[in-house]
């Protein structure tokens, strides 16, 4: 049987005596689109931080396709294939969308390589392909800081994809975006995911988005997984309704 793409085993971390991850174990299969939901302060972001190396667990292990990556530096984990698009977009706001993307591609390859004409042409082709995939071709020359929030989020995701990740982590891909725009962002994202055969884990507060797009949902509560499974079933679970859905 093939390895899970990501495996977390008994992860535990506490801040000031409060367990933000309490013996958390889970597996993510290749190609899955997995949502994490849970009340504020339940440990969703902490789990992402444990996977990306921003926090070290007190105990437990994280494996990427069977390789233990616990305690590795964030940069090394990113190079190894876990990319994160943050809730607050990380674009250089005074640069064009394309320049941002070229920088991200160059940083993956080693920047000096990018100064060679052949490499530069290859990067430009790669950037154009990613911009098209995320529906941003018409905005390639726009200054990133002038983009509306929804497009900024998609531009931020292109930066994460430029790392050619095996696993993409997304912090609330639709937060701060109008109700109308939310679904079009998700459709574009899903299309890109399918085209690239990507695996992603996303934190989300919007249950409609979770129900419509996630293959599986994990419900966090007080640093533990309260429930998991298909959204249509999990979101009806009375414990989940009480702790998350009812208060969202
Ligand atoms: N670096 C840190 N230092 C101290 N406490 C932290 C740190 N990171 C998280 N915590 C605490 O751990 C708990 C879980 O926080 P976390 O941000 O993971 O929750 P969350 O589910 O992502 O919340 P939200 O939905 O509000 O973003 C909270 O009590 C939080 O205050």
What does this structure look like?
With 248 residues, the protein is an alpha/beta fold. The protein is 38% helix and 24% strand. The protein has helices at residues 44-52, 74-80, 97-109, 117-133, 149-161, 179-196, 207-213, 231-234, 238-243; strands at residues 6-15, 18-28, 33-37, 59-64, 67-68, 82-85, 167-171, 199-203, 216-221, 224-229. The strands form two sheets. The chain has a six-stranded mixed β-sheet, with helices on both faces. It has a four-stranded antiparallel β-sheet with strand order 2-1-4-5, covered by helices on one side. Bound molecules: adenosine-5'-triphosphate. Adenosine-5'-triphosphate binds next to strand 2 and helix 1. This is ATP-binding cassette domain-containing protein. GO terms for molecular function: ATP binding; ATP hydrolysis activity; L-isoleucine transmembrane transporter activity; L-phenylalanine transmembrane transporter activity; L-valine transmembrane transporter activity.
């Amino acid at each position: 049987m093939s390895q899970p793409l990501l495996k977390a085993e008994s992860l535990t971390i506490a801040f000031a005596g409060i367990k933000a991850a309490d013996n958390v174990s889970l597996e993510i299969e290749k190609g899955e689109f997995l949502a994490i939901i849970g009340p504020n302060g339940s440990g969703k972001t902490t789990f992402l931080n444990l996977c990306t190396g921003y926090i070290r667990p007190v105990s437990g292990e994280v494996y990427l396709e069977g390789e233990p990556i616990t305690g590795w530096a964030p940069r090394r984990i990113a190079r190894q294939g876990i990319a994160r698009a943050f809730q607050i977009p990380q674009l250089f706001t005074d640069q064009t969308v394309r320049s941002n993307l070229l920088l991200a591609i160059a940083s993956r390859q080693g920047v000096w390589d990018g100064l060679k004409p052949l490499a530069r042409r290859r990067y430009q082709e790669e950037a154009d392909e990613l911009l098209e995939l995320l529906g941003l071709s018409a905005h390639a020359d726009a200054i990133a800081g002038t983009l509306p929030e929804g497009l900024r989020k998609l531009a931020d995701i292109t930066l994460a994809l430029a790392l050619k990740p095996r696993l993409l982590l997304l912090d609330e891909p639709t937060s701060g975006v109008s109700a109308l725009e939310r679904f079009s962002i998700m459709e574009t994202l899903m299309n890109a995911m399918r085209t690239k055969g990507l695996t992603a884990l996303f934190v989300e507060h919007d249950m409609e988005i979770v129900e419509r797009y996630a293959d599986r949902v994990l419900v966090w509560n007080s640093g533990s997984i309260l429930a998991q499974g298909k959204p249509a079933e999990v979101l009806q679970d009375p414990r989940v309704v009480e702790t998350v859905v009812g208060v969202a």
